[in-house]
Fold this sequence. Notes:
It contains six helices and 14 strands. The protein has helices at 9-23, 32-53, 57-72, 76-83, 85-92, 203-211; strands at 114-116, 119-120, 131-140, 150-154, 175-179, 185-191, 196-197, 216-217, 221-226, 233-239, 258-259, 262-263, 270-273, 276-278. It is globular. Residues 105, 107, 220, 222 line the site of fe (iii) ion. Residues 105, 107, 220, 222 line the site of fe (iii) ion (FE).
Amino acid sequence: MSVETTATAAASGANATEKFRANKTAAAQVSTARVSQLASRAIKALVDTVTEEKVTYDEYNALKAWLIRVGEDGEWPLFLDVWIEHAVEEVVNADREGSKGTIEGPYYVPGSPVLQSPATLPQREDEVGTPLLFQGQVTSVDGTPLPGAHVEIWHADDAGYYSQFAPGIPEWNLRGTVVADADGNYQINTLQPAPYQIPTDGACGQLITAAGWHAWRPAHLHLKVSAPGQQLITTQLYFTADEHLSDDIASAVKPELILDPSPTSDGNGREVSYNFVLAPEEAK
Ligand code: MBD
Ligand code: FE
């Protein structure tokens, strides 16, 4: 295989780094005092680790080499979203009403094809996987349906690859922005995602191997759900009986986010309902 057709951590990481640069606005509004406070504490946490653990020069140089490699492999988005983002999400959404959120992860791309409900996500003719009908209603916290709510969904294919991050997959494969109907109801036909291993051949994989950890996330759907006047929620949904629900490497599972699909009447697939409750936008 040529470089272009091989799914490597470096290729996926470079894409994640590029997409982050393209989509996220620079963190320009952090004050000097706040930068000083946060950077001091973060550095102190590392220094305390060195002191308390009596770190050797071999260990210090191993860390230096590894940090250099994280950048070379483009894996800062992966590293941060796997090991740090869950804490940010918990802090930011601590008092939020309505449905639970969880981390976005490194593989979101804005601007996916807009599809009217009932919708089928873009997929290849020979896409592998069990059909999954995912449906429900989007309401506000007082139960009012939200007509035309947007249910943005993206997930990995059966081999664990995301379109636009692994090579050879059509651009918007298994990605879509589904518009709910006049009653806030949505219906999405897709495929059951498989348990997912983060890329193991880059710097993050090197850390996982060196530490004797595992690289698994439970199978998941990623979602961003929004409607005018409501706060957008970023979340993920998981599936009951997945062996990695209790040891997600990204620490992003919450009990409210676990689906339990049933077989469809034709016996060919599975279906599940999940209702999204959006919190009102904060008064300005
Ligand atoms: C993923 O698919 C993901 O959702 C997270 C959080 C990290 C790495 C890959
Ligand atoms: Fe994911």
